[in-house]
Amino acid sequence: MQHLTHLTLSVALALIAISEPAAAQLVPVEWDAAGQFSKELPVAVGKFVEVCEKLPQGAKIAWSFDAAAPLDFNIHYHEGKKVRFPAKKDQVTQHAGTLVTEAEQDYCWMWTNKTSAEAKLHFKLTKS
Question: Is the pTM of this model over 0.90?
């Protein structure tokens, strides 16, 4: 009987783990031959999508996005314990700009969904 209880508990825990959404979606940049990268993804409720790329100083990346619901958005990089934000907007459904990198760093574009429904996100990065 004890074996059956452990088996039932194991199955229940496995089902809970499968149903839990991922904490975040980390997306590696995959540039095409034209120097572009675009993707369409869902951003789960209470979660975020982050796209990061190591860029040299002086790189220029044009970026744009649109989303089906308002998202918090930022571009950031880390300098030691400090986080720098070349761009930051709260609760926007679309935005665009050009990042000109100040230093060689890992730069991240990040969208956070604080709404009550999943939001579809489409973004595009272009080297210039």
Answer: no
